[in-house]
Amino acid sequence: MDSASVTPPTPPPRQHPPTPRLPPSEPGPSSPSDSSQLHHGARGGGGSLRVPAGTSCWSIEEVMQFVREADPAALAPHAELFRKHEIDGRALLLLRSDMIMKYMGLKLGPALKLCHHIERLKQGRL
């Protein structure tokens, strides 16, 4: 048999990891600039926090506003990091404390507080 006429087998198609899905409690997409999509939620300390219905659609600016309002004393000083690291609503919902400390440089206390607020946001408890 002539070696020029033999074609090598075609490699199998590359498998891509599955795309992560948002939690089922996450509301559907909404227009971040549509103020009619905002609702008020209770926050510890008796204050209220304006939370857009479609968190995964939040812009970086909306995430920064959430961080500032969630805990003004502990988290507001770190709000600019969310712009630097391009953290929008979808990225916010994927953050974990180890990422926040390693890549964003927050100390353990603020990182845990932020994770607490993100969890409350995911559960619709804000």
What does this structure look like?
The protein is mainly alpha-helical. It has a domain at 55-123: DNA polymerase, domain 1. It has 5 helices and 2 strands, in the order E-E-H-H-H-H-H. The protein has helices spanning 60-70, 79-84, 89-94, 97-104, 108-122, and strands at residues 38-42, 48-52. It has a two-stranded antiparallel ribbon. Helix 4 packs across helix 5. The longest helix is centred in the last third of the chain and has 15 residues, at 108-122. It is elongated and about 75 Å long. The relative contact order is 0.15. The model is unreliable at 22-47 (pLDDT under 50). GO terms for molecular function: chromatin binding; histone binding.
How would you sum up the major sheet?
2 strands, antiparallel
Regions with pLDDT < 50 over 5+ consecutive residues?
22-47
Q: How large is the count of helical segments?
A: 5
CATH class of one domain: Mainly Alpha
- What is the averaged pLDDT score? 76
- Label the structural class: mainly alpha
The CATH architecture of one domain can be named as Orthogonal Bundle
Instruction: Find the CATH superfamily of one domain.
Output: Transcription Factor, Ets-1
Gap between N and C termini: 73 Å
CATH third-level topology of one domain: DNA polymerase, domain 1
Overall helicity = 25-40%
Radius of gyration: 21 Å
Order of secondary-structure elements: EEHHHHH
Spatial ordering of strands, largest sheet: 1-2
How would you sum up the global shape?
A: elongated
The proportion of strand residues reads 5-15%
The quaternary structure here is single chain
Number of strands: 2
